[in-house]
Design goal:
alpha/beta, 30% strand, 420 residues
């Protein structure tokens, strides 16, 4: 399959709903009422009561952003709807079987980038793309987009705090917790479950604020809903939900939005960023690449979340000191639950980094917040990664190291890099 076709399938067909909806010319226009407000550079999108788009999927940042783009950009919508037109023109019937070769008319893709996972051949001259893991795209969006539905609310709890909900029993789990039964039909009695595996991510060069417009409501039946969720079975169906279905409906897939992640998490890595500046300007280290990503959910572990419920992040910086290349990893411990040393990795091949970083991110939170040293031994060798402790300090906020300690901290990194 040509890489462009592979790319656009990854872009548009982010979840089960969008896979089904592309084979109809009317699904999206009939389920969403798009109301632009040009003077405010804003768009209200009403999610109609007849919509079958899983309401819990609006909690997936990238899926929500992708849907906003499709519904507000005429070129994106025309490209998506061309899937149905090509399907109508090129499908073939052989007895009871129907087949067609996927094709469509892509939107303009100037300045777009894709991040892939794969492998080189023995000569390192050809690269086989096995998976697209992330997409950078340059598109024009309104300044803000609001999704509106009566079921979008924040329930007021006994302590007066608000808790986000989406009507009915809100389901959002990773696929390891459920068994998909393709023999059984899907029921429309419950909110659709969102099964999240390793989500692909998207990043917009021109960020747009996309959000659910939520009201605060009293939630009298919240305890009953939570009990119903605990007592529900683990079997689900990925079929089209309908009234006579037998199992809860599940939607598979989704996207995570990492647009402007560095700015979002900047305050959590203030001391580490000061360290990088000292390494760069005083010790002449060259910063080759840096990225900040959230730590993923692994099984039932909650280690990927800070104490306040927001996502914990990890920052990776690839730098060069003289002739030595290394990767520095810093985990967000801004809630003060646990302090973790900075990890320095030698011998990391940039071509394999996407796959390796995915494994490391999972390993950090698999059991407790700790470095997965056995994994690192296998990836880079026992003597190719070391931890450098943060300076000891008292009275400072968690993760906020006093400026006077940064210099000696940097010196320890330079010493380690010299030995690498």
């Amino acid at each position: 399959m040509p890489l462009t076709q592979f790319f656009l399938q990854t872009l548009f067909l982010a979840n089960s709903y969008l896979c089904r909806a592309c084979l109809s010319s009317a699904t999206l226009p009939l389920e969403f009422d798009v109301q632009p407000e040009p003077e405010q550079n804003h768009v209200n999108i009403h999610v109609l009561q007849t919509s079958t788009f899983p309401k819990s999927a609006f909690d997936q940042s990238g899926t929500k952003q992708l849907l906003a783009w499709l519904l507000t950009d005429p070129q994106a919508m025309a490209s998506y709807q061309s899937i149905f037109r090509h399907y109508q023109e090129k499908r073939e019937f052989r007895g009871p079987l129907e087949s067609w070769r996927f094709s469509f008319e892509p939107p303009p893709m100037t300045n777009w980038k894709l991040h892939v996972r794969g492998r080189y051949d023995a000569s390192k001259s050809h690269y086989l793309v096995e998976e697209i893991v992330g997409i950078d795209y340059d598109v024009n969006l309104p300044e803000s987009v609001a999704f509106i539905n009566p079921d979008f609310f924040k329930s007021k709890q006994n302590d007066g705090k608000a808790r986000t909900g989406s009507g009915g029993t809100a389901w959002q789990h990773i696929d390891e917790e459920f068994e998909i039964d393709d023999e059984q039909s899907a029921s429309d009695e419950n909110e659709t479950l969102i099964l999240e595996g390793d989500l692909t991510w998207c990043r917009f060069t021109k960020p747009c604020r996309v959000y659910k417009q939520e009201e605060v409501k009293e939630r009298r039946n919240q305890i009953l809903d939570e009990l119903a969720e605990k007592e529900a079975g683990r079997d689900v169906s990925t079929g089209e939900p309908y009234q006579g279905g037998t199992l809860p409906s599940a939607d598979v897939g989704g996207k995570e939005d990492i647009t402007d992640r560095e700015r979002q998490f900047a305050s959590r890595f203030k001391s580490f960023d000061h360290l990088l500046q000292v390494l760069k300007f005083k010790h002449l280290c060259r910063i080759l690449h840096e990225e900040t990503l959230p730590l993923p959910k692994v099984g039932r572990s909650k280690q990927h979340l800070l104490e306040n419920g927001s996502q914990r992040a990890i920052k990776a910086v690839r730098l060069r000191y003289k002739l030595i290349d290394a990767v520095l990893l810093e985990v967000d411990t801004s809630d003060g639950i646990k302090m973790l040393s900075t990890k320095v990795i030698f011998g990391s091949d940039a071509r394999d980094w996407i796959e390796h970083f995915t494994l490391i991110r999972k390993g950090v939170v698999a059991k407790s917040i700790s470095w997965p040293n056995e994994l690192l031994d296998g990836l880079f060798g026992e003597n190719c990664h070391i931890g450098i402790n943060h300076p000891k300090h008292q009275g400072a906020d968690a993760g906020n190291i006093p400026v006077e300690s940064i210099e000696s901290w940097a010196q320890r990194f330079v010493h380690a890099l010299s030995l690498g």
